[in-house]
From TrEMBL, chain A:
InterPro entries: CO_DH_flav_C (IPR005107), CO_DH_flav_C_dom_sf (IPR036683), Diverse_Substr_Oxidored (IPR051312), FAD-bd_PCMH (IPR016166), FAD-bd_PCMH-like_sf (IPR036318), FAD-bd_PCMH_sub1 (IPR016167), FAD-bd_PCMH_sub2 (IPR016169), Mopterin_DH_FAD-bd (IPR002346). It comes from the Bacteria. Keywords: FAD, Flavoprotein, Oxidoreductase. Gene3D superfamilies: 3.30.465.10, CO dehydrogenase flavoprotein, C-terminal domain, Uridine Diphospho-n-acetylenolpyruvylglucosamine Reductase, domain 2. This is CO or xanthine dehydrogenase, FAD-binding subunit. GO terms for molecular function: FAD binding; oxidoreductase activity. Residues 1-169 form the FAD-binding PCMH-type domain. The keyword Oxidoreductase applies. Transmembrane segments: none annotated.
UniProtKB/TrEMBL annotation, chain B:
Residues 27-131 form the Aldehyde oxidase/xanthine dehydrogenase a/b hammerhead domain. The keyword Transport does not apply. This is Xanthine dehydrogenase, molybdenum binding subunit apoprotein. InterPro entries: Ald_Oxase/Xan_DH_a/b, Ald_Oxase/Xan_DH_a/b_sf, Ald_Oxase/xanthine_DH-like, AldOxase/xan_DH_MoCoBD1, AldOxase/xan_DH_MoCoBD2, AldOxase/xan_DH_Mopterin-bd_sf. It comes from the Bacteria.
Amino acid sequence: MDFLSPSTWEEALAAKSAHPDAVPIMGGTDVMVELNFGRRRPPALLDLTRIPQLRDHGPDDGYLRLGAGVPYTTIIERLRDRSPALAQAARAVASPQIRNRGSVGGNLGGASPAGDAHPPLLAVDALVELASVRGVRRVAAREFYHGPRRTARRDDELISAVLLPEPAGPQSFSKIGTRNAMVIAVASFSLALDAQARTVGTGIGSAGPTPLRAIEAEKFLASEFDWDGAASPSPATVTRFGELVASAARPIDDVRGSAHYRRHALSVMARRAVSWAVTDYRKEIARCA
Amino acid sequence: MSGLLENTSTRAIGADIGRVDGPAKVTGTATYAFEHQLNAPAYLHPIQATVVRGRVREFDTRDAEAVPGVLTVLTHDNAARLADIGDAELAVLQSDEVAHRGQVIGAVLAETPEAARQAVRLVRVHYEERSHDVRFSAARTDLYTPGEAEDDEQGDLAGAMASAPVTVDHTYTTPMEHNNPMEPHSTIAVWEDAGLTLYESTQGVHSVRSTMAELFGLDPERVRVIAPHVGGGFGSKGPLHPPVVLAALAARLLPGRPVKLALTRQQMFDLVGYRSPTIQRVRLAAEPDGRLTGIGIDVTAQTARFKEFLEQAGKPTEVMYAAPNRRITHRLAALDVAPPTWMRAPGECPGMFGPEVAMDELAVACGVDPVELRVRNEPGTEPASGRPFSSRNLVACLREGARRFGWQDRDPEPRRRMEDGWLVGTGVAASTYPTGQMPGSVAAVRFEDGHYHVRIGAADIGTGAWTVLTQIAADALGVPVTAVRLRIGDSSLPSASLAGGSTGTVSWGSTIVAAAQAFRERHGTAPADGAEARAGLPDNPNRERYAMHAFGAQFAEVRVHADTGEVRVPRLLGVFAAGRIVNPRTARSQFIGGMTMGLSMALHEDSVVDPRFGCVVNHDLAEYHIAANADVVDLQAHWIDEADPYVNPLGAKGIGEIGIVGTAAAIVNAAYHATGVRVRELPMTLEHFLA
């Protein structure tokens, strides 16, 4: 196995172009586990830890630009206000040691349907920035996940950053697991409201071959939500939203939980997310008034 | 018989003394098996069977041998012949037969661990595969009665069940669970002209020495086993398993060079034992006031087809409650699996799950408080044997626990308390564990340079043996703790029994007391430099006359989310009656460690076997869940003062295992009280609470 260790981003892109089957590695929290368990044996590892800009974050034309290697701990400690749902998801990742090393870029690279970062990226309509020697392109997270561990990223591309829109309304993330910490989600859910566009975003984790959106549920809540006064939606509306989220999932039975439980859990998390959103939205209205 | 200890003025026993090995452990200087610095070690990686049953037809090792740094590929073709000692699990590389998936069928020895591991991946194995059967079920038609556990019947349980006004008759199950000590099983083996030296992660250096000497046909004096510190065992490092034999076989091919083997976490799920799953039919016959007229447990467990091991889950039913009619049976399913082994409180731990949940069901059926129900069924003598108890304070534990926990205001009706979306309930269960003593220990005391050097080949697997044996020696000699220099963890020291069955402290401690007495008798209180005496563990005639057990009561508060079924255990409180507590600090650690493991058993631990491939699929700590810190909230262990003049000169009972016994039942009973849903299988998961 070759170990490629570029010191600049240009060198990294050139290396990826020359070795499209090289697996990028930064925190190693996924890749090292896979190597250790013998699940894969890539011909080369592409070490990105020497590229400083992958750890940068800052404003970028209305977005928060988050370098692909920014660790979860940084998101939790410094970027909570600018990425509320993602920061909540980051808090739910594994243990402090893993959060110090793991990054959203790694989650996107591995593209496990159980990755905690995916549902918020879907819900807030984030962009994934992909770079290669051919140039840079941005793909909506909503177009990024193609199949189990398959994504829109081409073999010669590296994930350079994610771009998160300025929060324009309440956001949340929740996760159900079978213990209180260090747990792969049985199911997870993220909700983001955009008060300006009056749209709703959702993201479902661990309940399908890829992270999923509940598009019917989004449309339904956008039309039912009281965007002017944030009146509490009727119990029937909340229940219907939960049902629509659950029906968008495509879960299986596995050692962590049954498909039946996953759908049930999603409907509960979706209902909770609506009630949190209404409360937060009201606070926002009161603050602006 | 505890005169010496009563008269001493130093009173180290009972003192809250920090671990004498603590500074070394927290500064990283305590040396564990794999860490001993030896010159030019070679590294070993096992080759494991990828079929469940059959035989190896051929190894193709060409690619493996071409890996730079590979020294040897070890298979049954070139491994030394071992003596047949009647333990098929240890007949490592003695034939081409495959008896379970993951079995060791070879190994690669290399200059680096990476080369060894890579080469193992390149070994191609051709098998003659046979059909296999790993399905565990009480409905199997080939279950058999193991020789060590004949059916135990008193009176007529079936008759009692037929005529009793109140009965409980349900089946309870516990899953396969893996010990998973933090330190993996590891060995450094060095084969030299002088003999075999093993740095081993073990619960008993002397038993490793005698077994390995026998296997390899060596004089025991030519085998030395060293284990000053061990990072947990929970039983799986008690009996020997194939890896240590494999390491010695490899070392024999490479005389003079240390051979290092550390199992990966995944290999530990194949090679070092586990707790058998159990299926327990429990029957209780009672009067309307809850007094038992009959109690029975029919246990089904699994064993390996090639090596029998029985999980004696029926044992505690011999001890716990009075009832004129009693029936205890064990059946085994022999499967194409790796052999089960001891796991913390083997027998008692799973065997107090079914009966203690059944007792809660009886309490509900009779409308009797579950604490009171247990008090009403307190026996005068040990029910199965009729022998008097040397001491039995279960009732005191129940009462003290109820007081501390705030049990008296409990509304017995289930599903009455809801707080912020969480259903809240409380539950109780009893604990018990036998007070054993293992023969065979010898201790030596020598006075030199102003210190008393106490030597015994005992093992500290994290229990606190280094500390408590120092305390016992100090009191037995009537000197301050600082005057004692203890040495343990080396087979060149006098023989010591295993750290198992919660017998370590009492067996080794009683031996040290005997050696100290012999020393004082021979050398008085002003010994000359170099004065020495030794003594073995004396017989205790009281062991024939009395039934000896520790008891406890565990109380749990459980919250179950009404919408999601998520389970939380905000409170666990245990009260134990375990004789004299030698060191409250290390004792508390043992009790709460056991209770934490019981919590883990209740909510998480579950080795899932894929019957097609015969292996555990969740064989790592990401998927095999053990309780995390965040799962443990308010955890309390208390004990009552219990003076037992019969058990041993220390008046102490073993405490390493009782903490895990009964915990899972208390939690399941609390979950019933919270929700009205009775869970009879472990682990208890979110899905149990969805309608």
